[in-house]
Amino acid sequence: MSKIITFIDPIGRTILAEHVSDDKSFLTVKNPAIIHVQPTPQGQLNVQTIPLYFREFISDKNKNDGTTWKYNKTTIVEGIDIENDTRLLDQYNRLFSAAPEPKDDQKVIKLFDE
After folding, report:
1. In a domain, 9, yes or no
2. Which of 11, 23, 56, 66 is the most exposed place for a label (fewest CB within 10 A)?
3. Which residues pair with 78 in a beta bridge?
4. Residue 15 falls inside a structural domain
5. Alpha-carbon distances of 88 from 48, 61, 68, 73, 108, rounded to whole Å
6. Is residue 110 part of a domain?
7. What's the half-sphere exposure (Cβ side, CA atoms, 13 Å) at 89?
């Protein structure tokens, strides 16, 4: 996996993503994920990574390829030399690892009617 970068998108979400390339105008990333932080009733913070675009929305032939996105550099704020905690990176990597095949006795939940 290439370098994971952190930036803030045009609507203020903190994004983790695999850096693909960038030029003067655009940052291109693969598999962006939103960092979602929510307080718990105990006063702690629950941190989740949520894919920007769910793999279930992608055709079966491309499901494990991931998605690539171009962000206009004039509308984002790029983090410089951010070293994310390994727990956050592990959560991100698990999110985009290939989906395991369900066992015969496991029920598969479908998002759409067939």
Report:
1. yes
2. 11
3. 7
4. yes
5. 8, 29, 21, 24, 27
6. no
7. 12
On whether the CB atoms of residues 18 and 30 are closer than 8 A, the answer is yes
The pLDDT of residue 58 is: 80
The pair of structure tokens assigned to 56 is 């279930």
Q: How many CB atoms lie within 10 A of CB 113?
A: 4
- Residue 101 in any domain: the answer is no
How confident is the model over 17-55, as pLDDT tens digits?
A: 999 999 999 999 999 999 999 999 999 999 999 999 888
User: Distance between CA 31 and CA 67 in Å, rounded?
Assistant: 5
CATH number at 44 reads 2.30.30
DSSP 94: H
* Amino acid identity for residue 113 in this structure: D
Domain that holds residue 8: 4-96
Task: Provide the 8-state DSSP code for 107.
Answer: P
Domain count, the chain: 1
Q: Which residue, among 107, 86, 80, has the nearest Cα to 8 in the 3D structure?
A: 80
